[in-house]
Structure formats: structure tokens, C-alpha cells
Amino acid sequence: MSAEILWGIAGFVIGALSGSFLSAAGKDLYDFVKRQLKRSHEVEPSYVSTLYPPQNCAWIPEENLKNKEKNKWGYHPHPARGGKCFRTTSNSKFPKKEYLMVTPNAKKL
What we know:
Blueprint lengths: L2 H36 L1 E3 L14 E5 L3 H6 L3 E2 L8 E8 L2 E9 L7
Parallel strand pairs: 1-4
Antiparallel strand pairs: 2-5, 3-5, 4-5
């Protein structure tokens, strides 16, 4: 075999392996970003949105989320990390999660 043929075969193998590697790496990165956007991140209890007008935001208790989702409310993104924004409040001994949600017709500031 000539050197050109060997270099051609080696180039093909390297190209095929790197293409599948980059494809897998891209899929992994996409999955990571998607998980981050679905993940919830905590903010301070006194957090106030600077992304939407106050009248379009509300802290919704965890047990009422499904109702708001059905009515097309959206989750307010965490200011630094994206994903769902929540706070923990205390009612006596029982901590409770509340998610910051946005009305369906909310416009960004």
C-alpha cells in the first residue's frame, strides 16, 4: 500500500471518530443545558423581580403550581442561573416552598 492510501484511511478513521465524538459531546451539552433550565434555584425570601412588572409576578405555593400551569402561567427565571425561581418560607416548624410565577400576558421590562 502506498503512503497516500494509508494517510487517506487514517484521515477517514480520525474524521469518523471525531465526528461521532463531537456529536455525542454536543448532545451531552444540550441535555445539560436543558436540565439546568428545568432545575429550581432558591432566592432570598425578599427577592423582587426586576425582569417583569410587580403586578405580573406572584409567589405561588408548591401545592398550587399545577393549577397555575393549566392557566398558562410561566415560571420566573432565576436571575443568575436560569431555571425556576423559588423561595423557602417558614410557617411555624414547617418550611414551605413558593415559586415565583408570571402571568400569561406579562411583558418584560
